[in-house]
Write a structure and sequence with these properties.
single chain; alpha/beta; Rossmann fold; 7-stranded mixed β-sheet; two-stranded antiparallel sheet; globular; PCMT
């Protein structure tokens, strides 16, 4: 059996064994995850279809297939036309959302997206290299801003980058421990604050760019 065929089998097992049985029913997400080669977005030798996060280096991770699927389904709940992915990592979630029909801007602080799997499998996605915490107002307004990774809180400045009725989808970390528990939320801006609706619980890898500075104490 050739390697591509082996990966195709693993991809279908991922969808049928990890994604579909766990409250992921959006056919767009299921089809996108069946068709996109997740292994192309992971480091060489990584277990791309295992039920786990994948270390991308420098404190960054590709979320597990189930977390990716449920985030994508949450983003797509209101059929957004314009989506900003903050902390896009290797670009897998951005590619999934683009395959589902959204116009996607993928924001990263490093040039890791340039010329990688995202450019090959989702060339329609706009890749931007800029500070994550600032968002990317030049590409907005967005129907949804999704933060791909856990954060202690949603930055206030994201509110001004949303279209009327827009949302932020994020994983709010319950603590500062790596890989600790978090809760995925859908948040709407009300003034300078966000009103959040809890969607599901999951493990959370805090994005280094959003990690709180250690507090000084005597």
């Amino acid at each position: 059996m050739t390697q591509p065929a082996t990966q195709d089998i693993a991809r279908n097992k991922m969808v049928d064994g990890q994604v579909r049985p766990n409250q992921v029913s959006d056919p767009r997400v299921i089809e996108a995850m069946r068709s996109l080669p997740r292994e192309a977005f992971a480091p060489a030798g990584a277990l791309a279809y295992a039920d786990t996060d994948i270390d991308l280096g420098q404190g960054r991770f590709l979320a597990s297939p189930l977390v990716t699927a449920r985030l994508a389904q949450l983003v797509l709940a209101n059929n957004p036309a314009e989506v900003l992915v903050v902390g896009a990592g290797s670009g897998y979630l951005a590619a999934v959302l683009a395959a589902c029909g959204a116009r996607v801007v993928a924001l990263e602080e490093e040039a890791r997206l340039q010329g990688g799997a995202l450019a090959q499998y989702a060339p329609e996605v706009e890749s931007v290299c800029a500070p994550l915490a600032a968002g990317y107002p030049a590409g907005g307004p967005y129907d949804v801003i999704v933060i791909e990774g856990a954060v202690p809180a949603i930055p206030e400045n994201f509110a001004s980058q949303l279209a009327p009725g827009g949302r932020v989808v994020a994983i709010l970390a319950d603590g500062d421990e790596p890989g600790g528990l978090g809760r995925a939320v859908s948040a709407e801006a009300v003034g300078k604050e966000f009103v959040t609706v809890r969607a599901f619980d999951c493990t959370a890898r805090i994005l280094p760019a959003f990690r709180r500075a250690p507090a000084f104490s005597l």
